[in-house]
Design a protein that fits this description.
The protein is an alpha+beta fold and 70 residues long. It is built from two helices and three strands. The protein is elongated.
């Protein structure tokens, strides 16, 4: 479990990911990622894809990443 200091060093971002699988079926996932400063959108997108669709041949149709605070 991360320490309180480590938790304070991240920002919560809400993501939405829609992919098309090899069989043609589209799948959407969403959640909150805890992102450390200096991260890139490209890196986070890759992590989210691997978390939900590890080692699967997919095509990303949509990806949104925004701060999870209004």
């Amino acid at each position: 479990m991360p320490t309180q200091a480590a938790a304070q060093q991240t920002t919560d971002y809400h993501y939405i990911l829609t992919v098309q699988r090899q069989n043609g079926i589209a799948s959407t996932r969403s959640g909150v990622a805890h992102i450390p400063p200096g991260s890139t959108r490209e890196h986070v997108a890759g992590q989210v894809v691997q978390e939900h669709f590890p080692n699967q041949p997919i095509a990303v149709l949509f990806f949104s990443l925004e701060p999870n605070q209004l």
